[in-house]
Design brief:
5 helices, seven-stranded parallel beta sheet, Alpha/beta knot, alpha/beta, three-stranded antiparallel beta sheet
Length: 225
């Protein structure tokens, strides 16, 4: 990961790559980092939380859901995720790093109006976004592979009163390792074919629908006599 010393923008590059020596957000100098920042700095006003747009529906009863997009580059993927967030009554989207936010015109192209329906806020670093989500009462789960991950469908269903923020990462680099360290659980989708992962928007749809509807059915079955 590289981080800007001026505005805290944090984003992944390949090891040894000269790309990203200047911050994509403010043009300041960046450096390779492997730890959370110790000293906060002033943020651009555009990174302030955006209020829920007029007409935003209240979250559905029970499980509270939020999404954190950690350097998801593709505006098309982001727009599709936003559209799915609207369908799942996601309470808030946290955008971090390179992720284009809801007011990006290319996001609107695939969100098809859902970008006007889901509250969101933008942060230069996924670590900052995670802090904001935690302050709002959310526990973080990551949708990611790796040694720590477990099949989502083999995990215990979260309590009906839980508040979860599901973290999705960069299409190549995945979720920031420092963010993973702070997640209560790491879930993966089982893959039966030759590929080991799905498109990030497709993966979110599968996981989000299980959390919103499948987990509810699992709890009901477990409670049945």
């Amino acid at each position: 990961m590289r981080a800007c010393g001026a505005c805290r923008f944090r984003f992944p590059v390949q090891d040894g790559s000269p790309l990203g020596e200047r911050c994509p957000a403010c043009g300041g100098a960046t450096a390779f980092v492997d730890a959370a920042f110790a000293t906060p700095s002033a943020r651009d006003a555009r990174d302030a939380p955006a209020p829920a747009p007029a007409g935003t529906p209240a979250p559905s009863p029970g499980l509270r859901l939020a999404v954190l997009l950690d350097n998801v580059r593709s505006a098309s993927n982001v727009g599709t995720i936003v559209r799915t967030c609207d369908a799942l009554a996601v309470e808030r989207i946290y955008y971090a790093g390179l992720t284009p936010p809801s007011d990006h015109p290319k996001v609107a192209k695939t969100a098809l109006g859902a970008e006007q329906r889901v509250a969101w806020e933008r942060h230069p670093s996924a670590l900052d976004a995670l802090d904001a989500a935690a302050a709002a009462g959310f526990t973080a789960w990551a949708l990611e592979g790796g040694e720590r991950s477990r099949s989502l469908f083999g995990m215990a269903a979260p309590p009906a009163t839980a508040a979860l923020v599901l973290v999705l990462g960069h299409e190549v680099a995945g979720v920031d390792p420092r963010v993973l360290e702070r997640c209560a659980a790491v879930a993966r989708l089982p893959m039966l074919g030759i590929k080991d992962s799905l498109n990030v928007a497709t993966a979110f749809a599968a996981a989000g629908y299980w959390l919103r509807f499948g987990a509810t059915a699992t709890r009901a079955t477990a409670a049945a006599p």
